[in-house]
Amino acid sequence: MRQDYEQFRQRNAEVVVIAPDTLGNAQDYFRRHQLPFPGLVDETHAVYDLYDVQSRVLSLGQRPGLFIIDREGVVRYAYLGSQQWEIPPNREVLAQLDGL
């Protein structure tokens, strides 16, 4: 998402990463990876639970979740991967935004 962040912004969309970790660990990760978009911490997994993003032993950790949520809070696109590395390509997410 980092390499296409400007394309998301041109569509009036904001990318937000939510980390299921401690504040210190998340800040360290965000700083090391120089993310251009906001990062939020979800230590209690409240948001993860709300959107059914779960940790699975067979997926070697946290399953990825990607959601497009409109200004009214309606989920317009949802993707839950079964493995850590399964994330939809940016072109697919941008196409979903274009279709809204």
What is the terminal-to-terminal distance? 19 Å
Enter the CATH topology name. Answer: Glutaredoxin
Uncertain segments are: none
CATH hierarchy class name: Alpha Beta
Helix content: 25-40%
Total strands: 6
Mean pLDDT: 85
Order of strands in the sheet with most strands: 1-2
CATH superfamily: Glutaredoxin
Number of separate domains: 1
Principal-axis shape: globular
The SS-based structural class is alpha+beta
CATH architecture: 3-Layer(aba) Sandwich
**Radius of gyration from CA coordinates:** 14 Å
Biggest sheet details: 2 strands, parallel
How would you name the oligomeric state of the polypeptide chains in this document?
A: single chain
Number of helices: 4
Proportion in β-strands: 15-25%
The H/E string reads: HEHEHEEEEH
Keywords summarizing the entry:
single chain, 100 residues, alpha+beta, Glutaredoxin, two-stranded parallel ribbon, two-stranded antiparallel sheet, 4 helices, 21% strand
